[in-house]
Amino acid sequence: MKILVLQHAHVEHPGVFRTFLNEDGHKWVAVHLNDGDVLPSLDGFDALWVMGGPMDVWEEEKYPWLRDEKKLIQEAVEGRGMPFLGLCLGHQLLAEALGGRCGPSELAEIGVLTVQLTDEGSTGILFDGLPETFNCLQWHSAEVVQIPVGGQCLATTSSCAIQAMSWGPRAYSMQFHLEVEHDTVDNWMAIPSYSEALSSVLGPNGGSMLKAACNAQAICFKEMAERLYINWFHAAAKI
Question: What is the pLDDT of residues 55-87, one digit of tens each?
């Protein structure tokens, strides 16, 4: 499979999914929108992945390429029925592209926190084999507040109702992260807005606390990420 990957920060890449993609011989092409890369045609690609980033989906005046990115996502998912995976900002962009709505979170979620699968999530393909509640990395202060028509909520928390969703048979997205690697926290702390948010929620020692929490979950994160990765490819094969 040849996957188009839209990135909004160099350090917000597919994470450990890169290892699985390379091991399985899939090709992925990164487009760095934050560097001014031009969005390519979807022709020749088999799937679209959209990663996280420090900007918000409504900041179109500051980041005018967000408008074209949303149009491309709509074309891929609604127009072409392409397999889709969105993480964090990519989750929110999928919602907006399909007519949903995002907004600031009442309470920022930052840390290793627990999510709960909904009935749709626990019986669907994406989270098959994962427990109904599990720990993940959260690092966001915006969220999907209205799911697109035709979408299903797959996971939730008390602070953020729409933690994961699906639309159609092959589009999936998550607000949280399982693709965590050993250097993820250090890399993301280098983004000023992320570092400030981390300190505001977890305090001045938040970085050390978060790294320790991620290290304690490292094996579990990788196992769940690999299962989710396999499940996503099974869903992508649906017609």
Answer: 999 999 999 999 999 999 999 999 999 999 999
Cα(121)–Cα(234) distance, integer angstroms = 15
Q: Distance between CA atoms of 129 and 42, rounded to whole angstroms? A: 32
pTM (2 d.p.)? 0.97
Side by side, which strands form the sheet with 101-117? 27-32, 2-7, 47-50, 84-87, 171-174, 164-167, 151-156, 101-117, 133-146
For residue 200, what are its two tokens?
């505001």
Write the single-letter amino acid at 208: S
What is the full DSSP assignment across 7-69? Answer: ESSTT-S-TTHHHHHHHHT-EEEEEEGGGTPPPPPSTT-SEEEE---SS-TT-TTT-THHHHH
Task: Identify the three-state secondary structure at position 210.
Answer: helix
Catalytic sites, residue numbers? 88, 177, 179
Six-digit token pair at 112?
Answer: 């290793």
Q: Does residue 17 register a pLDDT over 90?
A: yes
Cβ partners under 8 Å of residue 211, min gap 6:
185, 186
Q: Which residue has the tokens 């045609």?
A: 41
